[in-house]
Each structure stands twice: as C-alpha cells, then as structure tokens.
Amino acid sequence: MKIIYENKEFEVEKGRTIREAFETQIKNSNLKDIIAARLNNNIESLNFSLENDGEIEFINRANRDGRIIYIRGLLFLMCKAFSEIYPEALLTVNYQLSNAMFSTIDNMEVTEEMVSNVKKRMQEIIAKDLPITKVIMTQKEAEEFYKKEETIEGRLQTKVDKDKVSLYYCEDYYNYFYGTMPISTGFAKIFDLVKYRNGFLVKYPSLSEPDILQENVRASLKLVSAMDEYDEINKLMKINTVDRLNRKIREKKGPKELVLFSEALHEKKIAEIAEKIYKRGDVRMVLIAGPSSSGKTTFAGKLGMSLKVHGIKPVTISVDNYFVERKDNPKDEHGNYDFECIEALDLELFNNQLVDLLAGKEVNLPTFNFTTGQKEYRGNKLKLEKDEILVIEGIHCLNDKLTSLIPKENKFKIYISDLTVLNIDYYNRISTTDTRLIRRIVRDYKFRGYSAENTLKTWYSVNRGEQKNIFPYQEEADCMFNSSIVYELAVLKKYAMPLLEEIPQTSREYSEARRLITLLRYFENMESNLIPNNSLLREFIGGSIFED
Fold it and tell me: CA 224, CA 217: separation in Å to the nearest integer?
C-alpha cells in the first residue's frame, strides 16, 4: 500500500499497524507524546491495521482530538485503579469543570486518603506502560458476555444501532469507553487527582497549554451549583444515563411525561429569576450572556413574559448596532477584523445612551449597516417609561466594561448555557459543548442555510471567542439558567444525522462528524410533535412562537 505522510509517499505492507509501519517517523516526529493518528480524516488508534492507501498525520494532546483521547484514557486508568483498590465503589464521572473531570462515589465517602491511594496506583500503572487492547464483539456476543459477567457497564452499547460493540482491556480489567483509546498506559505524562467537595477531580492540561497542569481549577461556584441541581433532578427522575432515557422514551406515556416535566422545570426557573428581578426593585437593566446555541432568544422571550406578570415591561436593545466604524475595528493576530472583542463596540456611545435612557431621556438609536461598515440613524427613537426595563443580550454582557457607566445596583446579569448532565453510562459523559454543537448544526441548516460541514469548520473559532469573552465572567452573573433538556438529543437526532452523514471523507470535518454520529446513535428517536411552540428546543428545530 501507499501511505502519504508529510507530503512523502511510503510503501507499507498491508495489515501492519500504524505504530509498526511508522515507528521511526513517530520516534523522530517534532510532536511530543503522539497518542493517535488521523488516517484519511478518521481518528484511529496507533494499533489500527492499515488495509488501504491513504494519508496520515499524527496527533497528541495539543490537538483537540488528541486531547479528547488523552482525557478518555485518564478516566480509563482512574476506573481501573478504583476497581483494584476499592472494587465495591459505585463510581460516576459527573461533569467537566474547567480542565478537570468531577467524579463522585454513590456508596462511599470520598476521603483524602482514598484519592491519594488511587492516584498512587494510577502512577504505578502508568510506569508499567501496560498495553490497552480493544476487543470487538458482535451484539449477541456482547449480550452473552455481560450476562455471564453480571455487569451493567456495557449494557447500553448492546442496544444501539451498531453491528459491533467493543471493550478495552488492560490486564484483567475491562470497560467500555466510546471512542479511540491510547494503546498503552504510559501515555499519561501529566495529570493529578485531588479531593474536591463531595468527590474528586481528575485534572489534565488545557488545550492551549498542553504541557502545564493548572494548580487550581477555576470553576465557577454558581456554575457548579447549577449543574448539581440538574444532576440531582435527573437522578430523582431516574434518567441520569442514556439507557434510562431510552427506556423512558419507549414507555407509552414516557415522551409526554419527559416533555411536560422539562417544560415545567424551565418555567419554574424562569419565574424564579423574574421574581428576583422584581424583588430587587432597583433593576433597570437585564443583561443576558451565554455561549452559542444556549437558547438565549427563547429565554429572553420567556423571561419577558414572566416580567410582565409583575408589571414590568421589557424593552430590547441590540448590542450589534453599536459596532465601531469598520475602519476603527481592531484586528486579530492574523490581520483579520476581530468582531468578537469588546473593543469592536462603540462603548462610549453605548454607555452614554444607556445613561440617558435610565435618566428618562429620549435617544436616537443607531442601526449598524454591515454592508458599509458604518452606523446609520434612521429615526429609531426610544424613551423608557417608568414601568419599562432594558433587556440586553450579547457575548460581553457579563463584562462590566460593556456597561461601565451604569451603577451595579441597576444591573441584573444572567448567564445561560446548555449544561448537560446526562451521561452515556456511568463513565462516559456527554459534553455540554457537543450538545450545543448539535443544536447549532440543526439551527444553522434550518434557518441560515449552512451545511453541517460549514458549522463544524467555524466551531473552533466560536469556542475560542467564548473562552475569551464569556466563560471568564461566569461568576459575575447574578444567576444562572441551565437551558439543557434531558431528551433533546433524542429529538435532534433525526435532524442532525442526515446533515452529518452528508460530509464526505475527503473533508477535514469528517472525523468530527463521525464522532457526533456515533454519539447520536446511542439515543432512541423521539418525535417532536409533543414539544410546545414556546419550548426552548423550538429555537433550533423550528416552530417557535418567539420566531420573528
């Protein structure tokens, strides 16, 4: 076979693994700690058997895909160490906090000694550089295996739309982890295990600093509280894993109950926020911020209705009309206009108009012409009445620099995000970022005519802007709203899957599309006919009462 690596063609014997065929190149590569490979735009293990011509590149934890594999491998090692030292522990990987994964044990108290013992055992396993082997079974073989072993760890994967299911083995320990795994335990060069609250954190490097472990996990306490709340609710509903969700969807009245409960939960939380704003008395401005596809539009509309119940009338101002003139817009390190930095906004004009509005004066609002790159004044005038309140939504709304002239007591800040707490199983969590990405893929296609490939191409840039402009200010929020819906991926599946399957293997985004397809296959299909037109999910699938 012919395999291209770094623009050079190599003849490779069919059936050799990537590691065997490119041992010299891996050893001499400029990349440190190579963990896997991209072969014909598929992410593959270094133990993958080469069967066809192709093009290859290697990845490490400084690469997004490599980092996912690195984290997955760390969790596998952590689970193996627990199984050896505390085999009776009912372990759950809960959710991500900054550059760490928060885990708990349901039937045991987590102590400093326990965490120290597990960390020490992980280090011993890593030092031995033990092989991690993938074993592929048919669904029937897997069902028989789990029945024989009397374990539920792999129960879900025997019920999904897959011909084959797989387990990863290391010595006599086995478990299921969805996605590519490192080929041996020696990969884990940088990690830590520390006690945190009622559980512990598995810490790992950030993508931007892959060789450094942060001393402290910068987790927003308000964010943790919001995720804990929904985690407890899902557990009370007995829908904390995809398998349990699927069983609920298969019940005759299950889908209806899921929809009614989720909508009631959102309505309750929004009503509580409106009550807080009303009781404060001195709030003249509500500022809403959150990452892409959090459901800000529907949330703002529903919050507005709740405020009206208290006799408060919301008035919306768009921050997008306050961009500086195009010639004055800052540029990024590549010489391109940086429209996401706060300096891209005319802060002086924005603040002066806010001060005038709160003082009861009439102002002439600008309209930004994105074609000419200039603000225009078209007679759009506004004067706030005594029973009216400003509602402003934008990526910088939690940053006080945006509203620097407005007294703190006049502002109420809200952070909104889809903080998914549903797990595939007890060890495989669903990323909140993945849920938002799937929402965005569906919405971009339906309302903007963008392909899934286009959305995936721009997603990294979107994430980078969120890391810089939104996430650092989470703790500044007066309250947080979790826009997650426990069944949403079961509904989004039928919209997203065909769009992802259109992406050809020649595309750089192919591997990411396949990863998301694999995730969605775990979910039973759930029809959207039961979802009301004021549901937050309608913002992405269409039919929302809040659409213009």
Answer: 12
In degrees, rounded to 5, the angle at the alpha carbon of residue 528 between the alpha carbons of residues 234 and 438 is 70
Among candidates 391, 416, 401, 396, which has minimal Cα distance to 285? 391
Cα 73 from Cα 69, distance rounded (Å):
6
Q: What percent of the chain has pLDDT over 70?
A: 96
**What's the average pLDDT block by block, 10 residues per block, for the chain (548 residues)?**
94 94 92 94 95 95 94 96 94 88 93 98 97 87 67 55 78 88 96 94 92 76 82 82 92 95 94 96 94 92 95 92 93 86 95 96 94 93 94 93 95 94 87 94 94 94 87 91 95 97 96 94 94 96 88
- Give the position of tokens 């200039």: 374
CATH 3.30.980.10 fits 65-210, yes or no: yes
How far, in Å, CA of 86 to CA of 80, rounded? 10
Tell me phi and psi for residue 267, to 5 degrees: -60, -40
Question: What pLDDT is stored for residue 159 in this prediction?
Answer: 62
User: Which CATH number is associated with domain 2-60?
Assistant: 3.10.20.30
Measured at the CA of 267, the angle between CA 261 and CA 271, to 5 degrees, comes to: 145
Q: Which residues contact 311 (CB under 8 A, 6 or more apart)?
A: 387
Assess contact for 199 and 103: CB atoms under 8 A.
yes
- Distance, in Å, from the CA atom of 486 to the CA atom of 531, rounded to the nearest integer, reads 13
Closest CA relative to residue 476, chosen from 251, 289, 242: 289
pLDDT above 90 coverage of the chain, percent: 73
Please state the pTM of the whole predicted model. Answer: 0.91
Buried b (16+ CB within 10 A) or exposed e, 445-460: beeeebebbebbeebe
- Which part of the chain is CATH 3.10.20.30? 2-60
pLDDT at res. 232: 82
Provide the CB-side half-sphere exposure for 272 (13 A, CA).
12
Q: What are phi and psi of 4, to 5 degrees?
A: -95, 130
Write the DSSP symbol of residue 541.
Answer: H
pLDDT at residue 505 in the model:
94
Residue type, 270: I
CA–CA distance, 459 with 524 (Å, rounded to integer): 26
- The segment(s) of the chain belonging to CATH 3.30.980.10 are 65-210
